[in-house]
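Is iron/sulfur cluster placement plausible here? Inputs below.
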Amino acid sequence: ELRKNKLIEQITHLKKKKNAILLAHYYQAPEIQEIADFVGDSLELSKKATDTNADIIVFAGVYFMAETAKILNPDKMVLIPDADASCSLAESCKPDEFREFINEHPNHKVVTYINCDATIKTMSDIVCTSSNAEKVIESLPEEYPVIFGPDKNLGNYLAKKTGRNLVLWNGSCIVHEAFELDKIINLFKEHPDARLIAHPESPSHILDLATYTGSTSGMLNFVKESSSKKFIVATEVGILHKMQQLVPNKILIPAPSIENNTCACSECAYMKLTTLEKIFLCLLNETPEVTLNKSLAEKAFKPIEKMMNL
Ligand code: 13P
Ligand code: SF4
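Reply from A.M.:
I modeled the complex. Tokens:
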């Protein structure tokens, strides 16, 4: 505890001294969310990255998020506490293979989920996040067939929602893919008054049971507005921190997952690479820094800008 308090003190001091802002995703550990200047979902964090006067952005999240912040702020220093914080969706989508996929489907519009590398973004007509994906698909003229990647679960959900025929890349999120249907059904038996809320990265057999499907910020809003008192939450467990603060009198149950080596809970190992110590060290040493080739960054900016302008 003493060490934790010391680290928080040092991080606060360095942030002030270097005019740095700490942005954190809802999936970060509670102590990191607590010291962040701003906590949000992917879209909110991208927006926040564009309207800060800070000289340095420290991104407590995963690499594609920090990379997006850099694309939006080429003149700012963007630091990521652990450069190995990847994402299984980004990992599933390698540029050469995605280029081939696009070539196999000529004349298609290409929509990519923001959970991908900058190079994939350069191949896209428009980018989306889970909170604006439906709107993004609907913004495309109906005469165009659409390629959607890298998340096939979000893609399936969008195809159902919009009635559009989407050609899907075969990627998925290791966290959302691991929710176990039988265990969720057993939970319902124990708690018949609970409502299932799920992130659209979850597979359709989970989403079919959900009262609400939406992004992390959408889920937070839903539990606040809903008259229900009990929720089974199918997304990364980090969200429960903010959620419980928002609805202190409601009961939140994390949706159970297939057991893995470390736990039977839905933790994103990439998100959890961030620690207070790594935040302190990266602020102190100004490394690891996210750097991008200028022309790549300019090309990747266009489909993100299109999304932001919607
Ligand atoms: P949000 O867009 O809801 O923040 O989701 C990001 C993410 O990585 C979900 O796994
Ligand atoms: Fe990627 Fe899934 Fe982790 Fe989100 S929860 S960062 S989609 S691996």
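Short version: The pocket of iron/sulfur cluster (ligand 2) is lined by residues 62, 87-89, 115, 173-175, 201, 236, 268, 270-271 (CB under 6 Å).
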